[in-house]
Amino acid sequence: MDLLRSLPLGLYLDAPQTWLHKLDSRVKLIWLLSFLTSYVFANNYWRVLLVLLLMVVTLVARIPLRVWRQQMGWLLVLSTMVLAIIAISPDGMSIGYQPRLPTSEQVLSPVPFAKSENGTKLPSPARENYEKRHEYQKYKYILFHQGPVTISRRSLNLAISLSTIVFTLIYSSNLYLLTTAPEEITSGIESLMQPLKKLQVPVTEITLTLTLSLRFIPLVLEEIQNLIRSVMTRAINWKKLGLKGGTRVWLVVMERLLENLLLRAEQIANAMTVRGFTSPSEHQVKWHQLQLKLPDWLAVAVLIVFWGLRIAFGSLN
Question: Would you list the domain boundaries of the chain?
Answer without folding.
Answer: 1-93+141-202+296-316, 204-279
